Amino acid sequence: MPYPFQSVALVGNARDPRVADCMVSLAEHLDRHGVRLLAAPDVGIEFPATPVERCSSGEFAARADLIIAIGGDGTLLYAASLVASRPVPLLGVNRGRLGFLTDVSAATMLEDVDSVLGGRYVEDRRSLAAARLERADGTAASALALNDVVVNKRETGHLLDFETSIDGRFVNSHGGDGIVIATATGSTAYALSCGGPIVEPDLDVWVLAPISPHTLSDRPIVVRAGSRISIQLTERASSAAQVTCDGTAIGDLRPGDRLTVEGSASAVTLLHPPGYDYYRLLRSKLHWGRGGFDDGPRD
């Protein structure tokens, strides 16, 4: 019986030798299974024993049945940006730090990939947020985010003053370094370091977490996913902020501009090995359950 994934694209920063070693090993393993392999021309390693077809990463969504992202969560976020408009699933192999999204370990990589190739996996559909930056001069920029949309101040040492509204209703005037609008998926990323809650990824909510707020009462809030969130800077000549989606800048936000974040019809699908458990992942990455009362099994 043929595998459900006949064509696999490999994505990763091969300048990291740990990533490069995994990519070569994985390519050889997949080739033995008769899987057609794709990699971008700028992946600067050779696959001496494996026929790997080089093509633009922009073609992966049309030509691959599965993308395997090898590295940290940033690598998987990049891979997600390639397939946001196509039903191509993603599998993440962790060669980074925490790895909330790249949850396959290097030690079990080949075994877990075999499970996925054999159709034994957990399918995990994640929603996206759509950001649109409308400038006072009539130009605009837009992007999708799996993790978060972030507004950050540009001038070090200057407080950023801005206002938020949700679904046309004024919420608050803020002073601080900016704000994170995180999906449930992104609740364990930047928003977490801003004091935001951890949200189960299948919950249909977003987190709005102020960054270093000047007022202690300016706390993170949880809102319905897909709410229309609007952010504008307070009129001040020195005010300037940068807007990023999953760490990629889409432009500057200045007085007179408006940033709108709302739900997207697009989504991405993550694949996990059999037995995937989100709470086990949290325990592993955040070192929960170490010591203290013996109230259950440890990982």
Write up this protein:
The protein has 299 residues and is of the alpha/beta class. It folds into two domains: 7-121 and 273-286, Probable inorganic polyphosphate/atp-NAD kinase, domain 1 (Rossmann fold, 3-Layer(aba) Sandwich); 128-265, Tumour Suppressor Smad4 (Sandwich), CATH 2.60.200. It contains six helices and 18 strands. The protein has helices at 17-32, 60-63, 73-83, 109-117, 190-193, 278-286; strands at residues 7-12, 36-39, 52-54, 66-71, 90-94, 104-105, 122-134, 140-145, 148-153, 160-166, 169-176, 178-183, 205-211, 221-224, 229-233, 241-245, 248-253, 258-272. The chain has a six-stranded parallel β-sheet, sandwiched between helices. Strand 7 and strand 8 (140-145) form a beta hairpin. The two termini are 35 Å apart. Residues 292-299 have low confidence and may be disordered.
Summarize the structure.
By secondary structure, the protein is an alpha/beta fold. It is built from 6 helices and 18 strands.
Number of strands: 18
CATH architecture of the largest domain: Sandwich
Instruction: Classify the helix fraction into a percent range.
Output: 10-25%
Number of structural units classed as domains: 2
CATH homologous superfamily descriptor of the largest domain? Probable inorganic polyphosphate/atp-NAD kinase, domain 2
Query: What is the average per-residue confidence, as pLDDT, rounded to a whole number?
Result: 92
Give the number of helices.
6
CATH C-level class of the largest domain: Mainly Beta
